[in-house]
Amino acid sequence: MRIYHEEQFGPIIPVVRFTGIEEALEYVEKSPYGQQASIFSTDPVQISRLTDQLVNQVCRVNINSQCQRGPDIFPFTGRKDSAEGTLSVSDALRVFSIRTLVAIKETEQNKKILNEIMKNKHSQFLSTDFIL
Predict the structure, then answer these.
(1) Which of 18, 39, 15, 14 lies closest to 27, judged by CA?
(2) Are 49 and 25 in contact (CB under 8 A)?
(3) I want to staple 83 with a disulfide (CB 3.0 to 4.6 A). Which of 74, 78, 111, 114 is the partner?
(4) For the segment 48-85, what is each residue's pLDDT rounded down to a tens digit?
């Protein structure tokens, strides 16, 4: 179906069945687009592993919440063909250095998951460590 291969902005979205997480990750990797992805889980180790893989493919990873616009304080960014429109070298360098945002709904369960990820250093990306 054509909509499956188009960049998604809603209100219509394709729903596809995958046989496993690796198949879904392979699709994301091969996709020419890279705006957002959502992870729904209560397993901190699985969330960490998926986050670490997705941050190199998309510019926003949502944990236990759907892909969404805004709030406007967050940048509207994209990777791959989602970042089309960059014309100059300085713009291109800025696009390649855009940071990825990980968003999580503020619930007690999600706070526990995030604390577990940070405390046990399950994720290389999700960290409160500073890089000097």
Answers:
(1) 18
(2) no
(3) 78
(4) 999 999 998 998 899 999 887 766 666 567 777 776 55
Q: pTM for the complete prediction? A: 0.62
CA angle 15, 79, 123 (to 5 degrees): 80
DSSP line for 22-74: HHHHHHHHH-SEESEEEE--S-HHHHHHHHHHHTTT-SEEEESS------TTS
Residue 101 bridge partners (DSSP): 60
Query: Which of the 8 DSSP states describes residue 103?
Result: E
Question: Which residue range(s) make up the domain with 94?
Answer: 26-119
CA atoms within 13 A on the CB side of 23: 5
Q: Is residue 108 part of a domain?
A: yes
Write out the two tokens for 109. 């369960």
- Distance, CA of 81 to CA of 67 (rounded, Å): 18
